[in-house]
Design goal:
Distance between the termini: 46 Å
Strand order of the largest sheet: 12-15-14-13-16-17
CATH superfamily of the largest domain: HUPs
CATH architecture of the largest domain: 3-Layer(aba) Sandwich
Shape: globular
Radius of gyration: 22 Å
Helix content: 10-25%
Order of helices and strands: EHEHEHHEEEHEHHEEEEEEEEEE
Number of strands: 17
Number of helices: 7
Strand content: 25-35%
Number of domains: 3
Amino acid sequence: MSKEIKVMVAMSGGVDSSVAAALLAEQGYDVCGATLKLFSNEEIGLEEVSRPCCSLADVEDARRVAYRLGFEHYVFNFGPQFKNEVIDRFADSYLSGKTPNPCIDCNRYIKFNKLLERALLLNMDYIATGHYARVEFDEKSGRYLLKKGIDRAKDQSYVLYTMTQEQLGKTLFPLGNLLKSEVRTLAAKRGLVNAGKPDSQDICFVKDGDYASFLENVLKISSIPGFFTDRDGNILGTHKGIIHYTVGQRKGLGLSFDRPKYVIRKDAATNTIVIGDKDELFCGSMTVREVNLISMESLSGPVKAAVKTRYSHKESPATLYPHNNCIYVRFDSPQRAVTPGQAAVFYDGDIVIGGGIIM
């Protein structure tokens, strides 16, 4: 590989992005590292010196890896953009009764938008990340394809469905053909400081995964009590605010029944949470908005696909139909806890057809 090809690697301080940078450097690319400063601990209500993700310690880990591997390392402050495009969207979604996935917004608006812009301004040819996914160019269609990572347990194609053709053509995923165990071995063999560092968990800016506490105590969003009802509108009790609940939730309702009850719908307009039996959680169809298609330019007719409605969920067979600038999805069999605000991603085998937001 010619040294003339320049790659900026997004380095979080974790083992994945560090190994991605090391592999590219060994393959002959002209590599530099970039760590994104997205917030300070004070801004997200933390007093701790460090965190599993996005802390000063992470910046230092990334810098030490870059120094060991012999390339430059930059720190870019995208804090204002992260606040506007990720944290504010996260809050607005919860307030509207939806359940968002801010990691997708971070990829969409920050990593593969702002970072790519900065890299191109610095005359880089590509950016690279430590995501477990693959990009291939399909000569037949003339399109870049996003494909699942080989390690099915770590595949991250779901959170990358918003990538455009331009972004896919300018992005490298060096770990796409590797298993996580192989990545840790490669890090240890190279003596990288973060070879044994634990993977980050939950959302980086929310302490201990307590979304409601973050919204109330950090963003100072009021949580207004309202009514629990059944599907017929009968009042069953009082809830402590819709931001405390998500579709499919059973625990923490504070109600007593002769059998388990679940959140089946949230209505922000009336500040009402509808609860019901387990079988009421299942639905046979959904509509998906803000669609981004990758493997095809448009959907002109019905297409069979495997559909994933949450990052941790398994795919389910379904048929996609074009519908008023959205996609209507009919599942082959009813699915549990399909949740407005989450992403639905469509697959054809390993290939990401596209995805959007569940209405």
